[in-house]
Amino acid sequence: MNSETRIRVLATKPGLDGHDRGIKVIASALMDAGMEVIYTGLRQTPQQIVEAAIQEDVDVITMSSLSGAHDYLFPKVMEILKEKGVDDILVLGGGIIPDDDIEALKSCGIAEIFGPGSDTREIAKFIRENVKR
Amino acid sequence: MYEDQEIELLKKENERWSEEVQQKLAKRPERKKEFVNTSGIPIKRLYTPLDNEEMDYFSEVGFPGEYPFTRGVQPTMYRGRHWTMRQYAGFASAEESNRRYKFLLEQGQTGISVAFDLPTQIGYDSDHEMAMGEVGKVGVAIDSLLDIETLFDGIPLDKVSTSMTINAPAAILLAMYIAVAEQQGISPKKLRGTIQNDILKEYSSRGTYIFPPKPSMRIVTDILSFCSGNVPQWNSISISGYHMREAGCTAVQEVAFTIANGIAYVEAALKAGLEVDSFGPTLSFFFCCHQDFFEEIAKFRAARRLWSTIMKERFNAKNPRSMMIRFHTQTAGCTLTAQQPKNNIMRVAFQALSAVLGGTQSLHTNSMDEALCLPTEESVRIALRTQQVIGYELGVTDTVDPLAGSYYVESLTRDICERAEDYIKKIDEMGGSPEAIEKGYIQKEIQDSAFKYQREIEEKDRIVVGLNRFQLEEEKVTGLLKVDPAVRTTQIENLKKLKSKRCSSKVEKLLAALKKGAQGDDNLMPLILESVKAYATLGEICDVLKEVFGEYGQPTPF
Fold it and tell me: In terms of residue numbers, what domain contains A100?
């Protein structure tokens, strides 16, 4: 596959959480699966995430939070994407996300939540099947 | 250890036995072609005295409480008293956390361990934009001395020991603790506890850095120097392998990278003019207890042997207390599964047992629901009870270092020592751990191990019960602990009130003095202590230091 047809993914850590094992493992796994991954590093604000996604022209955003701030940060990213009129990026979330919160996150446009124990091959498969462009 | 004749006989018999087993393998093969632990050390079918033929008991193992401390740092270990049962806790507001600490103390916990929220750990007050969504979530929100007064209200600080997981702003929180103790009429000389204060592993794995490495190391040495004179019973640093292990590294890497960081702190302190035995006894450590039972026990023994040798031979420490690796242990959060979460109770129990058999000085047992959320009171109680069952019922505490002399454990202890030494040598050659971190070497090693571990699980080379084998249809989990988002609003209101009530000209004067101190090379601790006493906020103090020191930006790993 050449780089033009490769799926481009922004892997990111919104907020102040420093647990980056999961997101880095996923970044490596998606690269292994032939995708192009841009990893932002820690401490990204929702604004920065959306800007990076637009600038890097990605097809997918994967974001991870283990600090419990997902209930604020994930919807905020979706809100800013909407404001900017971006509706063709597949957005996935992960981390320590209680079952009770998943519905609310999905209702604001996050396609899927992958919690602890998720198989990275399943995530790659999900991306391939659901990528919007 | 053995007579030549015995060894010869043993070699012959061992060969005979191995051949016989080999012949039977065709018919009854073993479960796996090769058995390897997480550190990549091949595990043999059987260990015998032959594996310890070269072992010198006195120089490698010795007696508990004596160099090289392989068997433990105290002569009587748990026959004297149990390890400190210390559950890491804190969430939401200072009031709520204060209630949790009192609950835990009533339940028989013997030390407090404070978890701070991320804004506090990264130097933001609760009203900062970067704090949005994070206030009170993974720990208690602390903005000023007022919050610390509430946090320890009714807890006599001369009776408990307190561990604070705080790194970049460690000086500020220690200063607040000293200030509150003074309000209770307690001299800093009587305070017992620990600040984590281990900035190097923040860059390599934990992520709550603020300033660049160089000024951060200066703050660390300022604290070491201040504590050795003023707070002598305080552990001024807790050099932590835990977070690197949780980020994915192996047992050998955990020992190696932790000790390499320890070496860097000692070198920095020596360079700042401190004498090794003046601060050596206040260094403490923090390890993980992971899932491979014997590997973990051997790891703790190896870490003690290695550190004591380094302190004695490399840094010429004379005080045996400088050579002791005294450590806290926490069970491995990353081994907990969100699937069938009650199984985590067993995982935690076995891991805790390995820490006890490894001779830990204090222990946190994780709660079964930590792969799902912050632990509830019930799950914290079970975790604490797990330690109490080990301490009071199993009998493992009745003799010191009961696994010493096990052919396997002694051999594994040596293997881990040797492999960790190889890493330390490599890091030395890079110029030490700060340089190795700057080059991204440590991060890369951790990341590669994490990826390998994940792949092993996905390929089912590594079985995780309930996750990739023995699965059940999972039920939706409810009744989890949830932090009230109103915590942030209350914190912000309190900040407003504080700022209108305190003497702002005094705060300004003290912050200006702090800035001047930071620009020069005065010890920052006394300046920070004065500032917190005047109710300067954590965010204000960090902002002043940021102006002088700048902020650290993480290089990208891919």
Answer: 8-127
- The tally of domains found in chain A comes to 1
Which residue in B246, B450, B477 is closest to A99 by CB distance?
Answer: B477
Is residue A111 in a domain? yes
- pLDDT tens profile B377-411: 899 999 999 999 999 999 999 999 999 999 999 99
What is the CATH number for A92?
3.40.50.280
**ipTM confidence:** 0.93
Size of interface A-B (CB pairs under 8 A): 114
**Domain layout of chain B by residue ranges:** 4-52, 57-61+70-420+427-458
CB B66 within 8 A of CB B320: yes
CB contact under 8 A, A67 and B339: no
Residue A24 falls within a domain, yes or no? Answer: yes
pLDDT reading at B244 higher than 90: yes
The answer to whether the CB atoms of B131 and A40 lie below 8 A apart is no
Which of A15, A42, A117 faces B338 most closely, judged by CB atoms?
A: A117
- Chain segment B172-191, per-residue pLDDT in tens: 999 999 999 999 999 999 99
CATH value of B57-61+70-420+427-458 in 3.20.20.80, 3.20.20.240, 3.30.1490.110, 3.40.570.10: 3.20.20.240
**Chain B residue with Cα closest to A65:** B134
pLDDT interval class at A4 (50, 70, 90): low
Q: CA–CA distance from B433 to each of B206, B220, B245, B268, B310 (Å)? A: 16, 15, 16, 12, 15
State how far residue A71 is from chain B, nearest Cα, in angstroms: 7
- CA neighbor of B32 nearest in space, from B21, B41, B24, B43: B43
Task: Kindly give, in sequence order, each residue whose CB lies less than 8 Å from that of residue B350, ignoring residues fewer than 6 positions away.
Answer: B291, B293
* Residue A1 pLDDT exceeds 70: no
